[in-house]
């Protein structure tokens, strides 16, 4: 890759990059934040999704839609199936049975994958994991460049330009030539977000993106996600950060025992929960002092 030595920055001059570039997936290509509630078509449509591990039912007949520009937070106790549900959307986990569509295109039907290209699917359905999954032998900018060159087959020059923009967008452009071991957890997670955005996904899935972070790093990552929300990025977020879910979500789905037992607006689910398990979860969260 055409990168200079550590300390001198990437070849492309920083002043050639817009101060606040917006991901290509933003609701408004002109870069204006979306202020209207999402009313677009379903980007992700899931019906009848079930998944078992070693005979134990983890997801039981799940139905869920995520509309264009919508932010859906998945809440629930550990082991409730939230992370598995996300991993089924891009077929990192194969459902036992389901109907899954991405922007109207069939992805999974019955008990088999029907999407034409799984690599392309995982490009269109971006995923940010708990543990970053950066290549340890590559710098921050190389991680973002390589993803584009391998998955999206873009030129190195184009990939480098996009990487510089996105690292600046998530606030780690000053760490472009740092290796993962030289970065804090929050910095690594922001690089992982930039890498996912570089592939121009239709939807971005976050699997507990702050669970491995200290409070300061958590605030940094949540700020980035908040910024993506302001620009209309379609997202599903597994999180235990209830106040953040309240602030950022258009809709919250509460999972328990492998089923979505309650969903609605943040006010409906968090202020007036109807299910006893939802009530107990929220009471335990408040009682923990978090």
Automatic annotation (TrEMBL):
Residues that span the membrane, as ranges: none
PROSITE patterns given in the database record: ABC_TRANSPORTER_1, ABC_TRANSPORTER_2
SUPFAM superfamilies with a match to the protein in the record: P-loop containing nucleoside triphosphate hydrolases
Top-rank taxon: Bacteria
Keyword terms: Amino-acid transport, ATP-binding, Cell membrane, Membrane, Nucleotide-binding, Transport
Chain positions covered by the region annotation Disordered: 1-42
Low complexity bias locations: 15-30
UniProt GO molecular function: ABC-type amino acid transporter activity; ATP binding; ATP hydrolysis activity
Bilayer disposition of the protein: Peripheral membrane protein
Sequence ranges assigned to domain ABC transporter in this UniProt record: 44-282
GO cellular component: plasma membrane
Subcellular location field: Cell membrane
Similarity comment: family membership: Belongs to the ABC transporter superfamily.
Protein name, entry field: Amino acid ABC transporter ATP-binding protein
